[in-house]
Amino acid sequence: MSFYSQLLLLILLSGFNSLTAQAATSPRASLSAVFAKGNLMVALSGVEWRPGLTMAAARLENGATISLNLSLQPATNYVFIATTANGESTDVALYLRDSTGRVVTEDQEPDGTPVLEFSATSGGIYQLQVHMAGGNQDAEFVALSILRGGGRSVLPQ
Fold first, then answer.
1. N or C end: fewer C-beta atoms under 10 angstroms in the chain?
2. Tens-place pLDDT, residues 44-96
């Protein structure tokens, strides 16, 4: 885990995300949480928001996985952050697979905010998988921030 990922995790564990369990029924709450975490990563590192799709959210049941195919550019650093509105009361994992299906990086630590940092050596289509390993509720909205080196700024409004 990189220095920035460790710093982000430390800040998150110190109560940065204080949203209630009731807010987990809203995609807006999980998107707000992941936007705040993405903006924190932007402030702490050399990445910005990825042009095009910058955030996404989906409702996942415990044990379910959803996949998103992304076109990644060679020699570019990427950061992917996932979370729910309930933050650390859930267990979310992230996996990034190359075009052959091989896992090139993963974060399956038992926490609610997995962070993947990846430098693409070759361009192409990669599959990002978000897995809801478990949580206090049967299903929750999981949101994703997509950042990259040489990205763009996104205004909070």
1. C
2. 888 999 988 889 999 999 999 999 999 999 999 999 999 998 877 889 999 99
Q: What is the pTM of this model?
A: 0.81
The Cα–Cα gap between 144 and 157 comes to: 18
